[in-house]
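Figure S4 source data
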Amino acid sequence: MIELIKKSLYAGIGAAVLTKEKIQEMTRRLVEEGKITTEESEKLADEMVKSGERQWEEMSHGISEAMKRWTENLDVVRRKDLTLVEERIKLLEQRVSLLEAQDRKEGESNP
């Protein structure tokens, strides 16, 4: 009976989105209707909360991995890579400026 109720609840609402309060409310109603005992209600609520948390973690991990693969296939630059390139450009611009200034000084001293 518990397994049937559990499967029905999962199918009807979706275990990954059930809140602990909603689960407790539903199991309390089942106790009031005499379909399960208080002890079974507590066990069922705990199992459903844990299962929902596991499913949420798995789903979040799956989404993160999919997004990572998707962005790796795009032709875009990550912010940290762009920052590194910008810093290198600044350093190169400074070096070019110094070399140009050095060339001008040498040009002025060698008429």
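Figure S5 source data
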Amino acid sequence: MRMLFRFIPLFFTVILAVQGCVVAKTSPPYGAASAVYAYGELRATYADTVFKTFDASREALKDFNMNIGNAQKDSTGGIIDATLPDRTPVHLVLRKAPEDATEVHIRVGSGNEEFARAISRKIEERLRR
């Protein structure tokens, strides 16, 4: 027990010494692989600007033969509303994220995770071109 009490001051000394150390900054994971599905929508972050991601998203939706209705963008984000040939609604919301990245929220119908992930992969594929 006495041995334990001898290390307590050493422990606090190390904690105080490390407190000012710089932690290396790492970039967050991007793309379809890092997408999270919750509450009926898929959230994915892409390492590209809002404008490039918006254009890639529109093209990805066209690849699935969707009819694009409302599509608006500005420097902080955008919205794309589309419908599948069977009239299932698809809604994308784009938001500017730190470090010239864009977060995209994808909702297909009342919550089709599989198809939302397919759209996310297609957006990523379009961004790589």
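The chain has one domain: 35-128. The radius of gyration is 22 Å.
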